[in-house]
C-alpha cells in the first residue's frame, strides 16, 4: 500500500514623480524590461503538481532509509513500470549526502527528527503543490513534536518501506539562462499585513513570467512570530509563476520549544526543510538556516555542526563549473549590523573555506535594508569580530518584502511606504544568470523601474533632523525640502543620490544646468572603516518621510553618493541630471529640480 504526500497548501518617464515624501521627490529610474528567458505556456496550466511518494509499512531496517529518484513521465508522483530511475542524483538526510546508483536507488542512515530531501538536478523539476510550494522532502519524527503552541510535526511513526522522489523533465531548468528571485522578510504579523504583501511584491511577481525555472526562494521571517499565519502567507505563493521555496528566520521559531532540535518544527511542517539545495541551469542554490536558538536565550547567527557537515558534503558533490548561490536569512556578513556578531554568521570563515575556489554569491535578508557588497569590500566590524579583512565574493542583502515592517503612510497601491533602514524601498532581488555569470536586479514593489532617490542635505535639514530625531513618527513635516537659501549653500549643501543597488565599482555623475558633468563621492568607501552615522550621512528624502510618518531612520547607508553644491549658485531654479551606473555598466538617469533663494 502506498500514498503520495501532498503538503496542501511600467515604465515611467525619467522625470516622473514616484512618491511625494513630505515635499521631497523620490525619482524613478527609467523602465527596464525584465530579461526574457525560456518561454512556455502559462505556469498555472503546465506546472508539475504532485508530491513525494511514501511507501507505507515498517521498513525491515529501521536504521536505513532507501528509495528511488525517478523520472515521472505521466506526472502522477508514482514510479510506474515504464519510468526509469535517475542515476547520479544527490539525496541527503540533512547530514549525510549520497548519490543514486544506475537504477536511481539510494540508501541513507536513518535517525529520529531527520528530514530527507532530494537535490533537484539540472534538466528536471521537483513537483509543486497547489500553492506552488516545492515538494522534495520527507520528515521522519516517529513520536511527533513535543507539545507546541502552533502544532509542530505530527507523529510520522516508524520508518516507511521507501521514500521515492519523483522528478519531471524540464527545459526551464536545463537552460543556461536563469532568473532566480530572492524574497526577503515577508514578515506578516497579522492578516492586514498579509494583504499588504499580496498587493505589493506578490502582485508584482504574479505579473512576471521570467522565473519559472529557478523559482522564488523566500529567505526567512516568513511570518512575524505568529505561526498561525503560515497558511495565509503560504497561500500567497499560489500567485507565483514558478516554484516557491522557503527558509526559516528568527521570527519563524517555535519559541515554546524546550530544546533546540524542535525550534523550527512548525516551519518544517508547513513549509519544508530548514536547509537544502537545488540545481537549475549551471547554478547550485544552497539554502541555509543561519538562525540558532536555544530556549530562554537570544537567537544568534550560526550553523550547527550537523548543518556544517551537510554543507561540506553537499558542495563536494557539485561540479566545479557551477555558480554557487548561498541563500540565508541572517547574512554571512552585512553592513547594517557590521559590529554585532549575533546578526551575522559565526562560522563565516569555515563557510569561506568550503567555498574556496568556487564561483559564488551570497544573498541574505534579516536587516530590512538593501546591500550590494563586492569582493574586497571591508569594514572594521568584520575584522574585529570574525577576522575577515575583505570579502572573497559578492554578498547581497536583498531588502524586505515587508520593507520597514509595513510602517509609514498607506499608498494608493494598497501597501505602506515602509522605507527601510538604508532609505531603500520594499521589493525583491533577482539574480539574472547566464551560465555562471550573474547580474543582480532589484525590482521595487509596485514599480520595477524605480532605482534611486534624490534629495538635498542642507544645514536647515540637519537642524530639523537633530530637533526631531526623538520624535519619530510625530515630527512636523520638513517644509520646502527642495529650496536652499544662500546661507545654507555657504554652510555646505549636498545633492544626495541613494542608488539602492549601488556598490563598489558603481559611479554617480551629475550634470548641473546642462553644464560640465562631475563625479559625486560615495559616503561609505568600504575600505576597512567603521559605519558613518548621523544627519550628515543620512538620506534626506527617506528621513523626511520616516520622522513624520514612522519607521526606522535612514541615518547610514553603504550606497549613498553626494555632491556639494557650489556656494555661488545663482538664485532661482536649477536642474540636476543624475546618472548612476552600476558595476555591470547599466546606467539609470534621473533629474531633480530645486531652487536657490536669497
Automatic annotation (TrEMBL):
Question: What InterPro entries does this protein map onto?
Answer: Calcineurin-like_PHP, Ig-like_fold, Metallo-depent_PP-like, Metallophos_C, Metallophos_N, STPP_CPPED1, TAT_signal
List, alphabetically, the SUPFAM superfamilies matched: Hypothetical protein PA1324, Metallo-dependent phosphatases
Instruction: Name all Calcineurin-like phosphoesterase domain ranges.
Output: 184-368
Signal sequence extent: 1-33
Domain spans labelled Calcineurin-like phosphoesterase C-terminal = 398-588
Calcineurin-like phosphoesterase N-terminal domain sequence ranges: 81-141
- Gene Ontology molecular function, alphabetical: hydrolase activity
Query: Transmembrane stretches, by residue range?
Result: none
Question: Is Signal tagged as a keyword?
Answer: yes
User: What name is this protein filed under?
Assistant: Phosphoesterase
Q: Which organism is it from?
A: Georgenia thermotolerans
Amino acid at each position: 500500500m502506498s500514498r503520495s504526500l501532498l503538503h496542501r497548501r511600467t515604465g515611467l518617464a525619467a522625470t516622473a514623480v514616484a512618491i511625494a515624501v513630505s515635499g521631497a521627490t523620490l525619482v524613478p529610474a527609467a523602465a527596464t524590461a525584465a530579461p526574457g528567458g525560456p518561454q512556455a505556456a502559462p505556469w498555472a496550466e503546465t506546472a508539475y503538481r504532485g508530491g513525494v511518494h511514501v511507501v507505507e509499512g515498517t521498513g525491515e531496517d529501521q536504521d536505513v532509509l532507501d528509495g528511488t529518484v525517478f523520472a515521472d513521465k505521466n506526472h502522477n508522483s508514482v514510479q510506474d513500470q515504464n519510468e526509469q530511475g535517475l542515476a547520479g542524483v544527490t539525496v541527503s538526510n540533512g547530514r549525510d549526502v549520497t548519490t543514486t546508483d544506475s537504477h536511481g536507488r539510494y540508501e541513507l542512515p536513518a535517525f529520529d527528527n531527520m528530514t530527507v530531501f532530494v537535490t533537484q538536478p539540472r534538466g528536471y523539476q521537483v513537483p509543486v503543490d497547489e500553492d506552488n510550494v516545492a515538494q522534495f522532502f520527507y520528515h521522519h519524527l516517529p513520536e511527533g513534536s513535543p507539545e507546541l503552541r502552533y502544532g509542530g510535526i505530527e507523529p510520522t511513526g516508524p520508518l516507511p518501506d521507501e521514500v521515492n522522489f519523483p522528478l519531471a523533465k524540464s527545459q526551464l531548468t536545463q537552460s543556461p539562462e536563469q532568473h532566480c528571485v530572492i524574497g526577503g522578510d515577508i514578515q506578516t504579523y497579522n492578516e492586514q499585513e498579509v494583504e499588504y504583501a499580496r498587493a505589493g511584491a506578490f502582485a508584482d511577481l504574479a505579473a512576471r513570467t521570467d522565473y519559472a525555472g529557478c523559482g522564488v526562494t523566500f529567505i526567512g521571517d516568513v511570518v512575524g512570530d505568529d505561526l498561525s499565519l503560515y497558511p495565509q502567507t503560504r497561500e500567497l505563493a499560489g500567485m507565483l509563476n514558478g516554484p516557491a521555496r522557503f527558509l526559516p528566520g528568527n521570527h519563524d521559531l517555535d519559541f515554546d520549544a524546550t530544546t533546540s532540535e524542535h525550534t523550527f518544527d512548525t516551519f518544517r511542517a508547513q513549509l519544508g526543510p530548514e536547509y537544502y539545495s537545488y540545481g537549475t541551469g549551471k547554478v547550485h542554490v544552497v539554502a541555509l538556516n543561519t538562525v540558532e536558538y536555544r530556549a530562554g536565550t537570544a537567537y544568534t547567527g550560526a550553523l550547527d555542526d550537523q548543518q556544517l557537515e551537510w554543507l561540506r558534503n553537499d558542495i563536494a558533490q557539485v561540479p566545479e563549473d557551477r555558480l554557487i548561490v548561498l541563500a540565508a536569512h541572517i547574512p554571512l556578513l552585512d553592513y547594517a549590523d557590521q559590529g554585532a556578531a549575533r546578526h551575522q554568521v559565526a562560522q563565516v570563515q569555515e563557510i569561506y573555506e568550503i567555498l574556496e575556489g568556487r564561483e559564488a554569491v551570497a544573498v541574505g535578508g534579516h536587516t530590512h535594508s538593501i546591500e550590494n557588497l563586492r569582493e574586497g569590500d571591508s569594514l572594521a566590524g568584520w575584522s574585529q569580530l570574525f577576522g575577515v579583512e575583505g570579502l572573497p565574493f559578492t554578498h547581497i542583502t536583498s531588502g524586505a518584502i515587508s520593507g520597514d515592517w509595513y510602517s509609514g503612510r498607506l499608498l494608493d497601491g494598497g501597501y505602506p511606504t515602509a522605507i527601510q533602514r538604508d532609505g531603500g524601498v520594499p521589493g525583491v532581488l533577482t539574480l539574472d544568470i547566464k551560465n555562471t555569470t550573474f547580474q543582480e536586479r532589484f525590482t521595487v514593489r509596485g514599480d520595477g523601474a524605480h532605482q534611486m532617490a534624490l534629495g538635498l542635505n542642507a544645514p536647515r535639514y540637519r537642524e530639523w533632523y537633530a530637533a526631531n530625531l526623538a520624535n519619530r513618527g510625530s515630527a512636523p513635516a520638513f517644509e520646502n525640502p527642495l529650496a536652499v537659501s544662500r546661507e545654507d549653500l555657504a554652510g555646505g549643501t549636498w545633492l544626495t543620490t541613494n542608488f539602492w543597488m549601488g556598490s563598489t565599482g558603481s559611479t554617480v555623475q551629475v550634470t548641473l544646468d546642462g553644464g560640465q558633468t562631475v563625479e559625486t563621492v560615495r559616503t561609505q568607501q568600504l575600505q576597512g572603516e567603521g559605519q558613518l552615522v548621523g544627519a550628515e550621512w543620512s538620506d534626506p528624502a527617506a528621513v523626511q518621510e520616516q520622522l513624520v510618518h514612522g519607521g526606522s531612520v535612514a541615518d547610514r547607508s553603504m550606497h549613498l553618493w553626494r555632491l556639494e553644491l557650489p556656494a555661488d549658485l545663482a538664485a532661482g531654479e536649477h536642474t540636476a541630471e543624475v546618472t548612476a551606473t552600476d558595476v555591470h555598466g547599466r546606467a539609470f538617469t534621473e533629474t531633480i529640480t530645486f531652487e536657490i533663494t536669497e
